[in-house]
Amino acid sequence: MALLSVIFYTLFLTVLSLMPIDEEIPRFGFSFDDKIYHLFAYFIFTVLLYTYTTAVQIKRKILVAFSIAVIYGIIIEVLQGTLGNKRTSEVYDVIANVSGSLIGVLVILSMRKLKLK
What is the pTM of this model? Predict the structure, then answer.
């Protein structure tokens, strides 16, 4: 089940990240609205990856989940800049992706600490 969740979410994230945006996305009222979406998406991605690494007994689960999410986010940003699909590549998007993944790591570590007590 964990593998299917990761596969589905990765496909979902890929499609959303690479398809042209013709419509306005819902706004929160900030100038950095899309960065909030990036942060949230990569938080979820990191947690799902961690869940999968736990299910298959991979060592250094958090590091593996974080690394995969960050590398994937960088690849997506490069593709956005090179595919010519009305999407742009931004360093701030990568920063938001990494931030979301870091928050995911912090939540995982906190949950593990609570579980140990």
Answer: 0.89
